[in-house]
Amino acid sequence: MKDRISKYACGKYVWILLVLLPSCSGGGNDQPAEEEQGIVTALPEQKNTVTVMELKRRNFDHELVSNGKVEARQYADLSFRVTSEPIAQIYVKNGDRVRKGQKIAELALFILDNKLQQARNSLAQAELDMQDVLIGQGYAPDRMQDVPAAIRELAETRSGYAQSLANYELARYEREQAALTAPFDGVIANLTGKSFNTPDASKPFCRVIGTERMEASFTVLESELPLIEEGDRVEVTPYAATLPPCKGCVTEINPMVDENGMVQVKAVVESPKRLFDGMNVRVSVKRSVPDQLVIPKTAVVLRSGKQVVFTLKDGKAMWNYVQTGLENMTEYTVTGDGMEEGAQIIVTGNVNLAHEAPVVVREEK
User: Fold this and answer.
1) I want to staple 60 with a disulfide (CB 3.0 to 4.6 A). Which of 23, 52, 90, 292 is the partner?
2) Could you give the CA distance from residue 309 to residue 312 in angstroms, rounded to a whole number?
3) Which of 211, 207, 213 shows the shortest CA–CA distance to 104?
């Protein structure tokens, strides 16, 4: 019986050892595999590839951009003085170019011509009556220079000559105003009148816009006033994409700041024939500012909300806090730590750089 128990116990222990051995051997093999895997996945440190430029002092082409409108420097709203007669003929339409003195429209003339003739006849009769008065006073009508002013005034009043002359001048003026003519070279706009209708007395018949000189009106911030002067170059670009920019220069700066902190500025535009009065445009004011440290905008990155420029020193990227000043579409003026003439500025490949990170300079072709 004892032999049986001992055999059974030995068999049990052997079975336990056989069960435990695979787990022990597996645990022993896992640790070297993990170490080997860690060695394989560790990568060598890689250097960042960057491009650099030498910081130099030079003239900076400052550019100030604003929205504005095109305005005609010269325009005239034309109206008929006489609104009792219908429009007989309209010779132009909106958009037509006219020359100074060119006829634009004309009223029916029969009644106006008749009224003028009646006034002329009345004046001639009054002149004869005035001569009779002067003869009665003992003066020769053909020597009016010898007639005293008081006697002549008396004769004009008694004969009705003064009143007839005033009526004649009025009739002649109305006849002349029956035709609208262009006061200067320009283009027709806002023409709403129709032939065979009487003119609308409440609004102008049309507008003549002088196109020889157009100007762009725009605003700048009060803080930008030191950056703009009369004579500065401008480019006026219509929002209509098919039109190229027009060149011009600043001619007027209104010496007042409005409630929004804005200042009104005007610039004369050269070659304005493709611009319309009231057209919305983008105005770019350009001015050359001398002796500035200038860097590309790509050289500036943000770190914790601050502007940073990396410089190259001994193959490493050095972190520098900077302050940007003037700007245009592609560049800044800059001041701050490390911003000295001759410094090597990293301009590309700087997005993920850290302080003293090793870099490789790529030569630009």
Assistant:
1) 292
2) 10
3) 207
Structure token digits, residue 3: 């032999």
Predicted pLDDT at 151: 83
On whether the CB atoms of residues 54 and 340 are closer than 8 A, the answer is no
Residue ranges for the chain with pLDDT beneath 70: 1-46, 241, 271-273, 364-365
| DSSP structure class, residue 144 | G
DSSP class per residue in 174-232:
HHHTTEEE-SSSEEEE-----TTS---TTS-SEEEE--SSEEEEEEEEGGGGGG--TT-
DSSP letters for 243-274? SPPEEEEEEEE-S---TTSEEEEEEEESS-TT
The whole-angstrom distance between residue 238's C-alpha and the CA centroid of its chain comes to 8
Q: For the chain, what's the residue count?
A: 365
Q: Are 285 and 237 in contact (CB under 8 A)?
A: no
**Mean pLDDT of the chain, nearest integer:** 83
The answer to whether the predicted template modeling score (pTM) of the entire model surpasses 0.85 is: no
Please give the pLDDT value at position 241: 62
pLDDT at 54: 93
